[in-house]
Specification:
single chain, alpha+beta, Beta-Lactamase, Alpha-Beta Plaits
Length: 377
C-alpha cells in the first residue's frame, strides 16, 4: 500500500499509538484555545499548526491537537489514523468531535470504496458523499447521521528522491455541502504538517531504539545475553567500593563448563553454543537478584555477589546445571568452580579474579564438577 523506506522505524514506533495511548475526543473549548472560531482564516489555522509542530507532548496528544485544528477548520468532527507498519492497518489514534473508541481500525483488505482506504491507496484527497441508500463508506458518516460528506486526506511525506510515503489519514466530516477548493487546500495543509510531526516522531523513536540496542550491544554478550567482560569489570569495581565502605564481603565465582571443547568437536559448534546458552540461562535463574552473572571466557562464566556464601551459591548452581539434559549420550553437564572472597583473597578486582582463576585450575585438576575456594575463603 505504501513505500517501505522507513519500515524499521515504523515497527519501532508502533507501540506509541496502542489503544492505551489513543487521544480521546477534544472538547470544543480546548480546540478554540488554539484555533479561533474564524476557521476559514488560513493564517490563524497555520499558526495553530505551527504551535502543535513546535510544542511538547506525546504523539497521540499532538495528533489529537491536529484533529482539533482540522475539526474547527473543516466545521465537523475529525479523526486521525496512523499506519501499523507490520500489518498495514490504519489505526485511529486521535479524534475531535467524535469518540475515538467508536472508530474501528481499517485493514488493507477492507472495502476499497472506504474514503480513508481510497485516500491511502491513491495518496490523494478523497471526498465521500453520503449516498441515497445511506451507505456511508466512511467511519465518520457511520458515526454521525447528520453529516453529508467526509474528506479523507493522506498524511504524505516526500523524501529527497521524490518518493511519497503515507504516514496515515486525516478524515473530517461535514454537515453542509461538499467543500470548495480553498477549504480542501486548507485541510491538505493541515494534513501536511501532521504528516511531518508523525514522521519526526517515528524518527525519534527509531533513534531511541537504536541507541538502546547499541547500549545493550556494548554491555551484553551476543551469544548468551549475559553481561560481558566490560560490564563485569564495572560492576565488580562498584561492588568492591561498596563493600569496603560498609565493611562487608563480596564473592567472585568463576564457572567453567566441563568437556565443552570435546562436546563441540563431537557434535558441532552449534551444539556447544547451545550448551553455553543453557548453562547461562540456568545461572541467571538460580542466583539471587542482587548477583551479577557475566560471560568471562569461551566456556566460562562469573558470578559476582555481595556476602560470603559463595560456596553455597556455587553448589546450588552446579546442582541445577547437572540436571540439564542438553546432549543425548553425553551424560549430565557439569561445571568446575573457583571462588575468591573480598577482602581475604584480594583487595582489588584484578587480585580477586586472579585468586578465583587459580582456585578454578586447582578444582579442574581434582576432577570435573569440583568446587574449590581460594585459600583465604
Amino acid at each position: 500500500m505504501r513505500g517501505r523506506t522507513a519500515a524499521g522505524m515504523m515497527r519501532a514506533w508502533r507501540g506509541s499509538w496502542s489503544d492505551a495511548n489513543r487521544h480521546e475526543s477534544l472538547p470544543r473549548a480546548h480546540v478554540e484555545s488554539f484555533v479561533p472560531a474564524d476557521s476559514g482564516n488560513p493564517r490563524q489555522v497555520f499558526l495553530a499548526c505551527a504551535r502543535v509542530l513546535a510544542g511538547p507532548g506525546d504523539l497521540a496528544g499532538r495528533m489529537g491537537e491536529f484533529a482539533g485544528v482540522a475539526a474547527t477548520a473543516g466545521g465537523g468532527p475529525a479523526v486521525v489514523y496512523l499506519f501499523d507498519d507490520d500489518t498495514d492497518v490504519l489505526v485511529p489514534v486521535a479524534a475531535s468531535g467524535v469518540d475515538v473508541s467508536a472508530i474501528s481500525p481499517l485493514a488493507p483488505g477492507g472495502d476499497p470504496a472506504d474514503g480513508s482506504l481510497a485516500a491511502a491507496q491513491s495518496r490523494s484527497t478523497c471526498v465521500v458523499v453520503r449516498g441515497k441508500d445511506g451507505d456511508p463508506r466512511s467511519a465518520l458518516l457511520a458515526a454521525d447521521r447528520s453529516l453529508t460528506c467526509s474528506v479523507h486526506l493522506p498524511l504524505v511525506l516526500h523524501d529527497s528522491a521524490g518518493d511519497a510515503d503515507v504516514e496515515g489519514i486525516l478524515a473530517i466530516g461535514l454537515a453542509g455541502g461538499q467543500p470548495g477548493p480553498r477549504r480542501i487546500e486548507l485541510l491538505e495543509g493541515i494534513a501536511s504538517v501532521a504528516a511531518a510531526v508523525a514522521h519526526r516522531a517515528r524518527l525519534e523513536s527509531a533513534l531511541t531504539e537504536r541507541s538502546d540496542w547499541l547500549d545493550r550491544l556494548a554491555h551484553t554478550d551476543a551469544l548468551t545475553g549475559l553481561a560481558n567482560r566490560r560490564t563485569l569489570d564495572r560492576v565488580l569495581e562498584l561492588e568492591l567500593v561498596r563493600s569496603a565502605r560498609q565493611g562487608t564481603a563480596v564473592c567472585v565465582a568463576i564457572f567453567q563448563v566441563d568437556r565443552h571443547g570435546s562436546i563441540s568437536e563431537a557434535h558441532g559448534a552449534h551444539v556447544g553454543d547451545d550448551v553455553l546458552r543453557r548453562v547461562a540461562s540456568t545461572l541467571s535463574e538460580t542466583v539471587r537478584l542482587v548477583d551479577t552473572v557475566a560471560r568471562y571466557g569461551r566456556d566460562q562464566f562469573v558470578v559476582v555477589g555481595p556476602g560470603a556464601a559463595g560456596v553455597v551459591m556455587a553448589q546450588r548452581v552446579a546442582g541445577a546445571v547437572r540436571r540439564l539434559e542438553v546432549v543425548p549420550g553425553e551424560g549430565p553437564v557439569t561445571v568446575s568452580v573457583g571462588i575468591a572472597r573480598f577482602p581475604e583473597d584480594g583487595g582489588s578486582a584484578t587480585e580477586l579474579l586472579t585468586a578465583a582463576e587459580a582456585a578454578l585450575q586447582d578444582a579442574r585438576r581434582k576432577g570435573a564438577g569440583t568446587i574449590l575456594a581460594a585459600s583465604g575463603a
